[in-house]
Amino acid sequence: MDLLRANLHKVRIPEPTNRIHKDECCVSFDTPRSEGGLYVDMNSFLGFGREHVAWNFEKSENPVYLHIVQRRKPEPDETDRPLKKPTLLAIGMEGGFGEQEPEYDVTYKIVILPEFLSLPFPSVDLPEKVRLAVDKVILAESADRKQQLASWVADKKIISAHAMDLQQLDNGVIVPPTGWKCSKCDKTENLWLNLTDGMILCGRWVWDGTGGNNHAVEHYQQTKYPLAVKLGTITADLEGADVYSYPEDDSVEDPILAQHLSHFGIDFSSLQKVSCHLFVMAPIWDNLALHSLEIYSSLVQIKLIRSQQTYYLTVDCRFTELLFSVELFSFRRRSVF
C-alpha cells in the first residue's frame, strides 16, 4: 500500500473526453480473456497484455495498472446438450442460432510495476483517488466499443472545409444549457445552433407537420453562415454531436467543436444527449437513391430521389439501443425543391 501511495500522483481520474482502451492490448491481440489478462495504464488509459506491460512501464514510467481478467462461466448443461446444426437463418428462434453470449466472471486488481505488486479491488483500504479512478475506468464505454457503436450509426464523416477558419461573431451571445427555443418561432425540438452568430433556430419542415419551420436553413440562405450543431446531440466527449454544413450539404466533423461551443459559453462536459441524429445512409430500393434521413422525435423522414423527382417516406421509429424497428406510416411523392 505504501508503494501505491508513493505513486499516487501517477494515477489519473478519467475525464469524459478520455478514451479508455480496456478491451484489447494496444500492441498485441491480448484481451482480458487471455491467459495473462489485460493491464490498463491508470495514467494514459492504454491497455497492454502481460508480455508488453513491462515495456510500457519502461517507456512511460507509469507504474500503476488496473489488471482485468475475464474467465468464462461454466454452463452446467453444455456438455450434456447435443449439438444441433441450425436449420434457419435466425437468432433466438427454434432451429436458429443461439442468441445468448457466453457469460464471464470478471476480476479486478491494482498492480504496481516493476514488482507486479498486486492489491485487491474493490477494497476500502485503497486511496480514494484510486477507487474513484478505477470505478470510472470500469464504468466507462471503452474506445473500441465507441468505435463499434459509431460504425452502426453512420459512415465516417468528412472534416468540414469551413471548420478550421470558421468566423465567430463577438456579439455577446451566451447559450444556456437548457430551455432552448427557436429564435423565430415556438419550436422547442429539432433545434440547431449556428456556430457563427449563436442563433438557435428550428430544422427542416416535414410535410406531415412534424420537424421544424425551416428557420435554420433560411438563416443560412440569408447570412451564408455555414455550420450548425444540433442541440441535444452534444455530449461530454463530443463524438456524437451532429454538425451540419449547409454549403457542403452534409453532416460533417468539426475538429475544434469544443472551441466553437465555448465561444458561446457552452460547457459541453455537463451536457447529455437528448435528441436523435441525422444520418446519411446508402441507397435502398432499386433506382431510388436515398438522399437523406432526418429524425424528429419519434418520426423519421426519408428523402429519396428518382428521375429528378423527390419522394418522402415517413416512418414511426422505436429505438432499442442501436437496433430499431420501423413501421410504415405513409408515403408521399413531391416535386424537387
UniProtKB/TrEMBL annotation:
GO terms for biological process: proteolysis. It catalyses: Thiol-dependent hydrolysis of ester, thioester, amide, peptide and isopeptide bonds formed by the C-terminal Gly of ubiquitin (a 76-residue protein attached to proteins as an intracellular targeting signal). PROSITE patterns: ZF_UBP. Residues 158-268 form the UBP-type domain. The keyword Hydrolase applies. Belongs to the peptidase C19 family. This is ubiquitinyl hydrolase 1.
